[in-house]
Amino acid sequence: MAPKKYPRAHALLEKFYAGKCTPEELAILDSWYDGLGNDADMPATDASHYQQQFLANFRDGLPGAKIVWWKQSAIKWTAAAASILLLAGAGYWWIHQARQKTNSSADNAAFLVTNETNHIKLVILPDSSHIWLNAAASLRWKEDFNQKVRSVQLTGEGFFDVHGQTGKPFIIHTRDLTIQVLGTQFNVEAYPAEGLTRVSLVQGKVKVRAGKDNTILKPGYAAVYNNEEKGIAVNETDAGKVAAWREGAFSATDLPLRDAVMRLCTRYGYNVRWENAQGADKNISVMFRTDTFTKMLDNLCYISRKRYRISERQVTIY
Description:
The chain is an alpha+beta fold. It is 20% helix and 31% strand. The chain has 3 domains: 1-65 and 74-96, no CATH class; 100-247, Jelly Rolls (Sandwich); 249-317, 3-Layer(bab) Sandwich (Phage tail protein beta-alpha-beta fold). It is built from 6 helices and 18 strands. The longest helix is centred in the N-terminal third of the chain and has 17 residues, at 44-60. The chain starts with 8 loop residues before the first helix and ends with a strand.
């Protein structure tokens, strides 16, 4: 079924499914996939259907493993089959298999995805829910995900687009909160080094619980849990700005300067050392769309009347 031009396509697909393709092999797959249905007499819509049908048939012949793939923004390939994402970069290639077993026992086996880059990672769960992970964030779920309940654990920041399933609520556990949804879009900030956890709702409805304290959010509102006050506060928010990091922006909403600087530096792979921490606990709200790391750091230091120096991968604020 594959074109004669690339007789190794099926073997390369198997290598891709196993996460073992080299960048050169991915380039071959890209050219091969574009050539599927490339017939002068075939309409473009039929060619697209031909491509999708081939990959669907290929997927059906593979073992029923639970696989999740991630991609960073600016990658142009789309999901041609539910469990396979063939991704070709615009000028570069970046594909990796995200399955990691964290326990040896089959009953307690879990999967873990950690974003160790300064790009955004998209995780597609077995129920077709989409989760974007910010830098240094991680997502964990057990192998029995979607059998009775859909439960995940988040560390760091993630944006959730949850696929609705009747009778199977989606539950997110963070250090301080339990978030329950049916089908909706929202942003979760749960950085381990920070004193707050925040859920900002874009659309739908979510229930947020911390111990005996709980609330139901409406779109345009955020639930904030403070470690010191041990309670949930609800306030209005611009959830679109909060989640602007998915498009490459940097935002900090009502966040201590110390935490905002830490988030920015972590995103770009820098450590932070404070020689002048005066005013570092004062809350700020900023959003930078497409600036460079140093330009954004310049602005953060300017509004706080501080300076910085960079040595290798360390930023010193003084």
